[in-house]
Design goal:
Layout (H helix, E strand, L loop, with lengths): L4 E2 L8 H8 L12 E5 L3 E2 L16 H10 L4 E2 L8 E2 L2 E6 L6 E6 L13 H14 L12 E7 L3 E6 L6 H4 L30 E8 L2 E9 L13 E6 L3 H10 L4 E2 L5 H9 L5 E16 L9 H10 L2 H8 L4 E3 L14 H6 L4 H10 L6 E8 L7 H14 L3 E8 L1 H9 L5 E6 L11 H4 L12 H12 L8 H14 L2 E14 L2 E2 L17 E2 L4
Parallel strand pairs: 1-14, 2-12, 2-13, 16-17, 16-18
Antiparallel strand pairs: 3-11, 4-5, 6-7, 7-9, 8-9, 10-11, 11-12, 13-19, 14-18, 14-19, 15-19, 20-21
Helix pairs in contact: 7-10, 8-11, 14-15
């Protein structure tokens, strides 16, 4: 039979009571065979990215989901989202009224999986290491408000911030702030390959084929001390080349669960099936897709070109043709369910209009059709990405104002090329570092941004982002956040396209699936257990 558990989209911070009322996990067993989770995330060590699992480098949802099982952080996002809670820490909090001094006390007796004691010095070492390495992935930008790290004794660590940052507890819950062992993680260089050591709920062994990790085997860590209840002894995360292969493995019973990224067709079939031993669970999510620009590139350097694209793209048609009910049009980089959202792009451009786009280009003296190439990744965001870009290409070209080509590359080539500025226009997805509007603005617009974008707006960087971070009450940050979104709609360094739901498909003897993914697409495999099928 098919049982579809629906978790309706909710405002961040309100999701926890909704899930609690639904009952969440079914209970589950801590024993039995390993639970196998399928994913289409690919884990590749390459010349450009030789250390994909180092916390000081990793900065995509797939690698973060490996690290979250093994590398413990001071804070963690709780079940059902909400404010972060202590994890490796016993307690944490701001000790001043200006949100510039943040202190944590470690849990007593905390150890790495190898038995080595963890002290405040290890935390200091880990944070300073990420900041000093400054990896090309730009993940260290999450720690940009850290000025100095101080220790007092073995268990007290104090972060002195260079500016007020009410979002700092969230940042301490991300893998870049994970605690690493200085005996195996060098201070000045990344740890290459697929080995991991930490103090999280699991230890990890990688199965590798050449330069690709095909499976991560997680075994319950007997030394673990933290806030999480681990409901199983072993979980394996298996990587598949595509969603069809992953789906076939689920049908055959080779895997128990599949997560991202299922195809829209797979989700449609599972949602309407009446004769299946597989359950489809819809989980509230904050995934977005957008177009990014190298604003220094000759083809799109004039913002009138970018504005014309924003004027022409029909998000509703795009979503309808490719994703159906699994996504919604997005008119800001901040999703509709997040505090601080505004429909800035709709307010600026309204409905798609060829006439308005033509006038924008003519007023700027731009010759048409504008010839450019849009790049996308073939294997990172799901099989529907190619179709999505074919629809975008047709929308732009049918206007007569553009002559657009599209080109796809696998992620291990696409991402380094994007960071080097080799693409004028490129498609990206975003799963927030934490569920706050800051995580949908600063990572793209601040200094050391995740795109390595040349776009700079001094009002955003010097005034609005710091202003928004001063507000512990995120509703009070709305004016600053709305202004950021309005400027983004005018300058168009990015074009938001859609926000999506997320799904888990699982065999019906697997419990805890309602909590396997949180809204930031964090994989929480400790929630899974085995029950009784039927």
């Amino acid at each position: 039979m098919n049982r579809k558990t629906l978790v309706l989209p909710a405002a961040v911070g309100l999701l926890a009571p909704v899930l609690a009322a639904c009952g969440g996990s079914d209970g589950g067993s801590g024993g039995g065979d390993a639970i196998v989770v399928g994913t289409t995330d690919r884990f590749t060590a390459s010349k450009d990215a030789p250390a994909p699992l180092d916390p000081a480098f990793a900065y995509d949802v797939g690698t973060w989901n490996i690290l979250r099982q093994t590398t413990q952080t001071l804070m963690i996002q709780p079940r059902g989202d909400g404010e972060p809670v202590p994890e490796a820490a016993e307690k944490c909090g701001f000790t001043d009224t200006g949100n510039e001094r943040y202190a944590c006390t470690l849990r007593d007796g905390l150890k790495f999986a190898n038995g080595d004691a963890i002290t405040a010095e290890d935390v200091k070492y880990s944070i300073e290491r990420a900041l000093s390495i400054k990896a090309d992935s730009q993940v260290y930008g999450l720690l940009s408000t850290v000025d100095t790290v101080e220790t007092q004794g073995d268990r007290e660590v104090i972060f002195h911030l260079n500016t007020a940052d009410a979002t700092f507890p969230y940042k301490l819950s991300t893998p870049v702030a994970g605690i690493v062992n200085k005996d195996v993680y060098a201070k000045d260089k990344l740890r290459e390959g697929f080995e991991l050591d930490g103090s999280g709920p699991y230890t990890m062994k990688a199965e590798v084929d050449g330069d690709v990790m095909t499976k991560a085997v997680f075994t319950k860590n007997p030394e673990y001390k933290g806030s999480l209840k681990v409901n199983n002894e072993k979980v394996e995360v298996a990587s598949f080349e595509d969603a069809d292969a992953m789906g076939a493995a689920l049908d055959k019973g080779d895997i128990d669960v599949m997560t991202r990224a299922m195809t829209p067709e797979q989700i449609r079939k599972l949602s309407t099936s009446t004769d299946s031993e597989v359950d489809l669970i819809e989980v509230a999510g904050l995934e977005i897709r957008y177009l990014g620009f190298n604003t220094d590139a000759p083809t799109v350097k004039n913002k009138a070109v970018r504005q014309a694209m924003a004027q022409l793209i029909d998000r509703s048609a795009l979503v309808s043709e490719v994703y159906g009910s699994q996504a919604e049009p997005l008119y800001s980089m901040v999703p509709a369910s997040v505090t601080g959202h505004s429909n800035s792009f709709f307010n600026k451009y309204g409905d798609p209009s060829v006439a308005k786009a033509k006038a924008q280009l003519e007023d700027a003296g731009i010759e048409t059709p504008v010839k450019l190439t849009m790049h996308y990744t073939t294997d990172h965001y799901g099989a529907a990405t190619k179709q999505e870009f074919e629809v975008l290409q047709k929308q732009l070209n049918d206007s007569g104002l553009f002559d657009v080509a599209i080109e796809g590359q696998p992620w291990d080539k696409f991402r380094p090329a994007e960071l080097k500025g080799e693409y004028d226009v490129f498609g990206m997805g975003w799963f927030p570092d934490f569920p706050d509007a800051d995580s949908f603005t600063a990572p793209f617009l601040d200094k050391d941004n995740t795109l390595n974008s040349p776009y700079t707006n001094t009002e955003i960087r010097n005034t609005l982002i710091p202003e928004s971070r001063r507000e512990a009450d995120r509703l009070s940050a709305a004016d600053s956040l709305n202004r950021i979104q309005d400027i983004t709609a005018i300058d168009v360094p990015l074009i938001p396209l859609w926000q999506g739901k997320q799904y888990v498909a699982a065999r019906d003897d697997i419990t805890g699936t309602a909590y396997l993914l949180n809204s930031s697409s964090t994989l929480q495999v400790w929630e899974l257990g085995r029950g009784v099928s039927g």
